[in-house]
Amino acid sequence: MRFRPLFVSSIALALLPLAGPAYADEPTPAPTPGVTQAPPVQQQPEPLPEQAPPAQETPAPETSQAPQEPKAPEEKIEEGLGVDGGTERAIVELTDAGAHATVATLAASESVDVVLQPQNQSYMVVEGTAEELAKLAEDPRVSSIHRDRLYSPAEVAPNLSLIGADQVHQSGRIGSGQAVVIIDTGIDVDHPWFQGRILAQACFSATEDAGVRSLCPNGQNQQLDGDAAAATTPACLSGSVNMCDHGSHVAGIAAGTGGVAPGAGIVAVQVFSRIDDEDLCGEPACLLAYESSLRQALDYVANLTLDRPIAAVNLSLGGWLYDTNCDTVEEGAVFKEKIDALLAKNIATVVAAGNEYYAGVAHPACVSTAVAVGANDNDDHIADFSNRGPLLDLFAPGVDVVSAVPDDATIAYSGTSMSTPHVTGALALMREAYPDRPMTELIEALKSSGRPYTYEVDGAQVTTPRLDLAAALTGASPQPPISQSPAPEPPPGPLEPNPTDGSGPTPEPDQPSDPDPQPSTPPSPVPLPTVTVTVTVTATASPSPTAAKAAAVCTRGTAAKKLDAKEWAVEVHRSSGKLTDATLTCYLKLISKSSKVFSELTKASSLGKAYRVLKAKSGSSKAKLDSALLTAWLNWAHGTNGTKALTAAEKVRMKSKPSAKALKKATQSILKTVK
């Protein structure tokens, strides 16, 4: 079975073991709440200006389309699904929700395991070989079959004052009577920041594959009762590190005692699974969320009944990168339907843009009706790691943000994961102030009142507002535009060692018959973080914002220097090159978010595996293409190369039976990009 890790990234959605423990040896109590819960006399917010109805006001899912010719069975199956043998976990889309039983019976007769059958939903999850899935695709009730993709959390006070949240709190707005949903890695249910305000919990955690463990407290695929989203289960622990602390941190920013909407209720939904696969994770264990788990979670929210309205759903996670909206691609269309269904109920879906320093966003932030959020620092500049561009709706603080983590502690994390809950909490405050306004108008009000950031992307001028609650809710004057040119780049300077983490996994490559020489022109060191694409930590948990400082977020390099396969092999071989293991590991994680070959078809998440792929001087045509592709992707992560040629070559690699001629041509095309 192969997994498809998609990040948030940094999105990237793999949450790998953190660089520092989420538990201190002697836990320190969380800070005393900084928000007065007994609000003063509320000032009435300025009325929202009358607006023309938004183009997609409270949209309902599209149900009527022009008739289409039925697809041939081979057209129904995602490219690359099962091409390298073995079984695949896949989502089978059905033409009718009522076809579950008959299609499941057919699947069983073809030896396909049915692992999930959501009631009243027109899809099921199965596991089978390419041949078995091809046979299943012949059924006219099956509209398509694609892999059950995996998502990672996007990367993980002054931030509140920058956006004017402190002024809004002083006016009496704290999100009372509202709720937010945090779909993430669970929550520390007894943390002081959340006392008395967790309204509901649920867990959807796939377990059918070997090496995959449930994070639900009951150990099952699903739990809807009790502390179903508890982030302190044994499966969350890797040694002294709590891998599930991301969700608590996100929840704390949105609606914790020290967050944006400290009076709002919280619905916590755990959607991740623990993966014990070093080849996939690059480390002994990581957390990833299956697409099917995310879909179950969104359906759960859509059908949830509470004693108060839900303002927004927070998704601080992400997958493949897009520079245009993804409404019409298969994975985007699935999420757009669910996001639109929530929006029709006046519930916004707020999604992390991703941390790849990319002119675009990670899926599902690419869905046009999602609210895509990038990160800025506390000096009002775009964070050097943040994705950016016309697909973004808002920027919000995402650098060194202090929030809750398990064991009643707090710590500072950085990333668009931290920016996203600022907007989620902001929508709870907006909904409290304007309960009768459609959510689409509230989103537009946040965008129109935000401080404009102007910057250049691919030669074009772009303006994206930075969240400003003071202007949106207290009548404060909007702040003037601020230029972000030249575009921020990852800061120069050497990596700072992290005392709580090693230098990364030690590769164990096949020993070459003759040692490779060092590159004739050594590449310059690239300043990158010491750990993962998602959350990085350099301090143990602390209640003091000044005592907790987060490391930089993993992002692409800026060296813009091309290396060939031989030179990259030197770099990844037992630290023999100029780049640190941590930088190279970061590059591999970025590649796994952006490529459909790595590590879905070719596992190259660890340095040792990457070395073997790069050294494929002889062997099959597929191996040679893999070597060329990995070389080109590493150059992309290093700060050079576009992805157009890579995408075309990957389509060839993912065909079930590509010809030797096609593989050779694709390899030659890629090799031209590394010269």
Provide structural commentary:
It is globular, with a radius of gyration of 24 Å. It has 17 helices and 26 strands. Strand 22 (401-405) and strand 23 form a beta hairpin. It is an alpha/beta fold and 675 residues long. The chain starts with 87 loop residues before the first strand and ends with a helix. Strands 9-7-12-6-15-18-20-21 form an eight-stranded mixed beta sheet, with helices on both faces. Strands 8-13-14-5-16 form a five-stranded antiparallel beta sheet. Strands 2-3-1-4 form a four-stranded antiparallel beta sheet, with helices on one face. Mean pLDDT is 80; it is low at 1-42, 51-65 and 490-550. Helix 16 (644-653) runs antiparallel to helix 17 (660-673).
Task: Write a short abstract of this structure.
The protein has 675 residues and is α/β, with parallel strands linked by helices.
